[in-house]
Design brief:
The protein starts with a helix and ends with a strand. With 532 residues, it is an alpha+beta fold. The chain has helices spanning 2-15, 34-40, 57-60, 67-70, 75-81, 133-155, 174-180, 184-187, 197-200, 207-211, 215-221, 275-301, 355-375, 379-393, 470-473, 484-495, 500-515, and strands spanning 19-24, 29-32, 86-88, 91-98, 106-116, 122-131, 159-164, 169-172, 226-228, 231-238, 248-258, 264-273, 312-319, 327-333, 343-351, 400-408, 413-419, 425-427, 434-436, 455-458, 464-468, 524-531.
């Protein structure tokens, strides 16, 4: 009967899926199941009946007590020698790594319990061993992944935190510590909207919490939140931040966190302080508005309609490189002075510099020259006085190149002063030749009391005078070539039969075609006179 019972027990042990063996009180192996054979490579026939820790050799390559032997030791001795062993009632459980069991080592889970005879006396012990290497490796990989993810989040330049589905903080990176002044150690594990206190001084849902709400509820309660797929984005102003004298603007973005099965396990939120950017945008907006006002004021300086006198066709245009600039032209009618009927003052100029400073200096120059042109009949005297006034007021070192002349209907002449400006081109209709109106004095605004000289030329029927600023000849193309005087002269020759307005248009289109996609770096101003 005892043999039948032992055979029945052996069959049960052999049937167990985990590696299992049994020893008696003398430490001799009395059972060694199939799974143990598979785990150790040692057949039961060569192990049964063996003692003296023979069963430890497949695992440790030496004879030594293992978990099954601890069953026979007093509890105090186990605690003294084996601090990684867990006791559950009279059963011992351990997770252990054995480096030499196979290449690369192996993680084993083992469980050992005493065996009792019918009288309740310990008659031996049984140990079950399970290879948990794959599970342990997977757990280690998950830990490494989590640690790597935590390192990545911690490295992010934007303040970032994450919560689980219960609203408990699971990540609080360095940038968040810096933004809020609260350490990760004191925030991780906190719930009940603890993470909102640094921002609102109140426990309230943040963007990460909205991720966990139904979409309809988010739309119904938060109209300023934008949804991009499963991500929520918001720009918000928080007026009463702790330890801040004024409110701050924040940009925030929150996305769900998923487990491998695609279930939402929490949410992650990134927060960026965009106060400086918003303030810069506000300054830029104010600056752009001011530029628009300045551009409108500057535009008002330009003649809306070019006055005409008999015997001449006149056209002029300015193309600014920016909203405002330093180029300008003027056509000054002298009709209100009886002796000067049929006379126009023609002015083209280029202020050094760009933008608003140049535009302000341009306004000064235009007014000064216009007043002096109406006061003095001789252009040289008008520019002499203008230069002294502009030089006295030019504290910033700016100057202006200028060409000014009076065009008279009566004798078909242009009396001019060229104050360091690009020489205008004169096309003579009678023989197709070109000539230049060279400087007769220095730029305005540089030195006081410098002499200027007037010169006079006659303008015949079909003759063309083209006044221009250096934005024309210094335009560049993708090859960094200059448009230059030769191309300008070629366009003038080719189109001299056209009207003044058409000649001006051909020059502008020629410059634009030459430059192609290259941006315009300088203002372009043209004033064309054609004798009729």
């Amino acid at each position: 009967m005892e043999t039948l019972s032992r055979t029945f027990h052996d069959a049960i042990i052999d049937f167990l899926p985990d590696a299992t063996f049994v020893i008696d009180l003398d430490g001799r192996v009395i059972a060694w199941n199939n799974a143990m054979e598979a785990l150790t490579g040692v057949p039961a026939e060569s192990m049964l009946g063996k003692g003296n820790y023979e069963y430890a050799l497949p695992f440790y390559k030496e004879r030594r007590p293992i978990l099954i032997d601890l069953v026979f030791m007093p509890e105090i001795e186990i605690e003294k020698k084996y601090d990684n062993v867990e006791r559950i009632g009279d059963t011992l459980v351990v997770d252990i790594f054995i480096p030499d069991f196979r290449p690369g080592g192996v993680f084993l889970w083992a469980k050992a319990s005493p065996l009792y005879d019918p009288q309740g006396h310990i008659s031996g012990a049984i140990e079950t061993i399970r290879d948990i290497t794959d599970r342990k490796r997977a757990e280690q990989e998950i830990v490494r992944s989590h640690r790597s993810l935590a390192d990545i989040i911690s490295f992010l330049p934007d303040a970032t935190f994450a919560i689980n589905r219960e609203g408990i903080v699971i990540t609080w990176n360095k940038a968040m510590e810096e933004m809020t002044g609260i350490s990760a150690a004191s925030m991780i594990g906190k719930g009940d909207y603890e993470y909102s206190l640094p921002f609102y001084r109140d426990r309230k849902p943040m963007l990460a919490n909205l991720i966990l709400m139904p979409e309809a509820e988010v739309k119904g309660r938060y109209t300023h939140v934008q949804r991009e797929g499963d991500t929520l984005v918001v720009d918000t102003f928080i007026p009463n931040l702790p330890d801040k004298l004024s409110g701050r603007y924040f940009w925030a973005k929150a996305s769900p966190l998923y487990d491998p099965q695609g279930n939402i396990t929490g949410a992650i939120e990134t927060i960026r302080d965009i106060t400086d950017r918003r303030e810069m945008e506000a300054r830029l907006a104010r600056s752009n508005a001011e530029l628009q006002i300045a551009a409108e004021i500057q535009k008002s300086f330009m003649p809306e309609v070019i006055p005409q006198i008999s015997g001449f066709d006149i056209a002029a245009q300015t193309v600014m490189a920016k909203e405002v600039g330093g180029d300008f032209f003027d056509v000054i009618p002298f009709e209100f002075i009886a002796l000067d009927k049929g006379t126009l003052g023609l002015l083209i100029a280029d202020v050094s510099g760009k933008g608003v400073p140049a535009a302000l200096f341009m306004a000064l120059c235009r007014i000064v020259v216009r007043v002096n042109a109406l006061w003095h009949r001789d252009p040289a005297k008008a520019i002499y006085d203008s230069n002294n006034i502009i030089t006295q007021d030019s504290k910033s070192g700016m100057f202006v190149t200028l060409f000014f002349g009076t065009l008279k209907e009566m004798d078909r002449t242009l009396t001019y002063v060229n104050a360091g400006h690009n020489p205008p081109v004169v096309f003579r209709n009678r023989d197709g030749t070109l000539e230049e109106l060279l400087p007769t004095g220095i730029v305005l605004g540089a030195v006081e009391n410098r002499e200027y000289f007037s010169r006079t030329l006659s303008i015949g029927s079909g003759d063309v005078i083209v006044m221009y600023t250096d934005g024309v000849t210094e335009s560049i193309n993708a090859k960094e070539e200059l448009f230059g005087e030769e191309r300008l002269n070629a366009i003038i020759r080719k189109n001299a039969r056209l009207s003044a307005h058409e000649i001006l248009g051909r020059i502008l289109s020629g410059v634009q075609e030459f430059a192609g996609d290259m941006p315009q770096f300088d203002d372009i101003t043209l004033l064309v006179i054609k004798g009729t």
